[in-house]
Specification:
Elements lengths: L4 E5 L3 H13 L3 E6 L2 H11 L3 E5 L8 H11 L4 E5 L4 H9 L4 E4 L4 H34 L3 E6 L4 E4 L1 H7 L3 H4 L4 H4 L1 E3 L8 H10 L3 E2 L6 E3 L5 E12 L5 E10 L1 H17 L5 E6 L4 E4 L1 H6 L4 H4 L13 H14 L1 E9 L5 E12 L5 E10 L1 H4 L2 H84 L5 H20 L13 H11 L4 H8 L3 H14 L9 H7 L6
Parallel strand pairs: 1-2, 1-3, 3-4, 4-5
Antiparallel strand pairs: 6-7, 6-12, 8-10, 9-11, 10-11, 11-12, 13-14, 13-17, 15-16, 16-17
Length: 562
Amino acid sequence: MHRARIMVVEDEGIIAEDIQESLQEMGYNVTSVVSSGEEAVQRVEQDRPDLVLMDVVLQGDMDGIEAARRIRSSMDVPIIYLTAYTDAKMLERAKATEPFAYMIKPFRERELHTNIEMALFKHELDRRFRESQEWFSGILDSMGHAVIAADRSAAVRFMNPMAQRITGWSLDQARGRPLGEVFAAWDEKTGSSIEDLVEQLISRGQTVSLADVYNTLTTRDGSTKTIDAGAAPVRNARGTVIGLVIVWRDVTDRKRAEEHLMRLGAAVEQSSEGLAVVDLTGRLLFLNKAFAEMHGATPEDLVGSHLSIFHNEEQMPAVDAANRQIRAHGTFSGEIWHTRRDGTTFPGLMHNTLLRDSSGKPIGMVGTLRDISDLKASEEALRRSHEQLAAYSSALELKVQERTKDLEESKRELKRYSESLEKTNEALKLVIQNIEEQKKESEAKVIHNLNLTVKPILDQFASLDLSESVRYLLQSLEFNLNNVFSAFGFNLMTEGDKLTPREVRICEMIRSGLSSKQIAKVMGISAQTVLMHRKNIRKKLALTSSKKNLATYLKAHSQPRR
């Protein structure tokens, strides 16, 4: 069973400890207890708690409300406020951060437990609700059809991107407007508009096809489009109709293409060459008399059928391959075997082309067909084919030889380039060696100058009667300066990517022998905060489960690098 992870933000040590013990007794996992808003904002990314108990009034520049606001802006984590104050202005600020509870101190453990469980439960419900909304919105936005929804008063409530693109109305512009103004569909024959049908749709609560009635749409810029639409009621959980949704698609281009193809069919009806036109699904839109007679039928028998009626199962793989080539390259020319109505077969020479509308969008295919049975029987045609194949083979062999020569020359060029790179590498080694020597010489000069200038001044300060705080700072400075004299750094600095600048400074003072109380006085913070930093330092240095003394460890790992 998952134990909820809770972060406690409380600057009163006794109260924080009491809350932590109570939470642990309730079965929760306390990720950390922090005492400032700044620390809470930094620590929450690391802890990833399921819930934050936030004291409103905290020490420092950032109070609990500001800390909660920053946490909520970066993470989806519920927050419960703990406070001894009921100031109205503070309450308004707190409400703006959308807390899950606001508890007044002192409170009972049972009250705390109830608020935590309710907050976790509500947060999980909110997460599931948002996830459902994202799924629903994503599905509607990715649909290829346009979708528009309106309430019972026929006011627009929703439009997906496709509906916005077709109508010219954005969702922000359309929301709340009458459905008939945004979805201006009307019947070309009678002139009636969609507004005449809205009330009837809602009162009946039935799904209705609008394709044969309201098939023309006027967009916001005044242009018209031919559409294929359907409308359905929207019901709530009790089955009551609360609005309607209309789903449609723009078929303007398809309708224009069909009309154009029909006119083209009339022009080629008398051609002796078989000609047929199909849409992208393979449905026959047109075929001339010659094409139909080759298959033992009339055009009226075949229009509306699928082109597969011209082929048997053995012939279909070749047909599918030809269609793929047309979609990929726009054309196909070759031999395709066909089947007549009586079951006999014949070889056909086909020239097929992909049809496109004015914008270049594919809308169908047109193909010509010629029966080449007599040609197939011609020996002369076969002989010429063999000669062409032999010539092609010879040319291919010659190209292979030429390519082989090119590859050999490339290998020689690569070898010369490799030798050049080796020489360049040797030169770079000499340059790097010279740089290292100059670096060592510079380091020696820096150490010499520090010994001549800074070191005597520190020695002079040490002989003066200084305050305890200044003497502690002087000891820390002298310790770091000794490290600079030794070799520019400590082995401990390898942990620099783990420790914060404040933690590094505390490490220096611990290494110098200062106590937690002395460190707190030097840095102007509480001894409790120093203890907390010591705990974090041990954790980052992997000493949490070790009994090693931190000062001893730091001294052992701060020997100068040789």
